[in-house]
């Protein structure tokens, strides 16, 4: 009896220590988020992000969720709970359900980008992508970041075939198989040439149970996108290797905190 009480106490203290560790990073992560969306966020107060238009979004809803529930109904804390590994594990072998950047709070994205299709369209800028014309959002200067990516990638002619034709930037739509908006809805993501892509659904994967893949996207491409604030979908357990999305806060958080694949 005494032994079992001891075991229970040890388990509780272990759970508390791992929780505390995760929570301990949250204030710093929120400050980084605020910095990168400074044109929208005025303050982080108690359990809320306060926006310039007066809107408040709750940070922690207090609900314990498994990974699939986090994807479906993420609060801000869930959104920041997985750190993106910058510059490492480029062969895209993530541990189960490690999807850094894929857990998104819809409300937050609608607030910092656009809440409707017509609002999103107002912010579109046309940029050159190796001879193609692509529409990218000017919100949070995403279009300028993608121009920098193109300028740097232009130095490597051998990489051109992976990058163009692009499989798309702007498309107001839900993520396949879900009711959540894709980041393509805000034109803050780019799909490169589909010919070299691996996508967990196409490979016959199920949520929480994907099939392994051989990555064909060169490391140099991933490195240059990350340098300018884009995360790569090949670093998700539920992988999407043609997909890069503009998440400069996650890149900075990933650099600041030790991150495993
Ligand atoms: Zn995509």
Task: Give structural notes.
With 261 residues, this protein is an alpha+beta fold. It has a domain of 171 residues. It has 9 helices and 8 strands. It has a 3-stranded antiparallel β-sheet, covered by helices on one side. A 3-stranded antiparallel β-sheet has the order 6-8-7, sandwiched between helices. A two-stranded antiparallel ribbon has the order 4-5. It is globular and about 50 Å long. About 7% of the residues have low confidence. The structure holds zinc ion (ZN). Zinc ion binds next to β6.
Largest sheet: 3 strands, antiparallel
- Mean pLDDT across every amino acid position: 90
Low-confidence stretches: 5-21
Number of strands: 8
What share of residues are in beta strands?
Answer: 5-15%
General form: globular
Rg, Cα atoms, Å: 19 Å
- Widest sheet, order of strands: 1-2-3
Q: Class by helix and strand content?
A: alpha+beta
List each distinct ligand once. zinc ion
How many DSSP H or I helices?
Answer: 9
| Helix-strand topology string | HEEEHHHHEEHHEHEEH
Q: Termini separation (Å)?
A: 40 Å
What is the helix content?
A: 25-40%
């Amino acid at each position: 009896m005494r032994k079992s009480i001891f075991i229970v106490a040890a388990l509780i203290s272990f759970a508390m220590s791992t929780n505390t560790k995760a929570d301990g990073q949250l204030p710093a992560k929120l400050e980084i988020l605020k910095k990168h969306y400074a044109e929208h966020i005025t303050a982080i107060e108690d359990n809320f992000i306060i926006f310039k238009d007066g809107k408040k979004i709750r940070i922690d809803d207090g609900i314990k969720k498994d990974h699939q529930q986090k994807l479906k109904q993420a609060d801000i804390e869930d959104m920041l709970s997985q750190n993106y590994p910058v510059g490492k594990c480029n062969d895209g072998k993530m541990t189960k359900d490690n999807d850094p950047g894929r857990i998104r709070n819809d409300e937050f994205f609608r607030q910092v980008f656009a809440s409707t299709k017509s609002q999103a369209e107002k912010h579109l800028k046309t940029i050159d992508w190796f001879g193609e014309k692509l529409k990218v959002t000017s919100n949070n200067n995403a279009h300028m970041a993608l121009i920098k990516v193109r300028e740097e990638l232009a130095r490597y002619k051998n990489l051109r075939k992976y990058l163009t034709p692009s499989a798309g930037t702007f498309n107001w739509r839900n993520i396949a198989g879900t009711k959540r908006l894709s980041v393509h809805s805000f034109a803050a993501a780019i799909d490169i040439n589909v010919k070299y892509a691996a996508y967990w659904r196409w490979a016959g994967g199920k949520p929480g149970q994907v099939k392994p893949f051989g990555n064909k996207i060169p490391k140099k491409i991933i490195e240059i996108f990350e340098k300018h604030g884009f995360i790569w979908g090949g670093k998700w357990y539920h992988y999407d290797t043609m997909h890069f999305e503009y998440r400069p806060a996650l890149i900075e958080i990933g650099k600041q905190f030790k991150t495993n694949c």
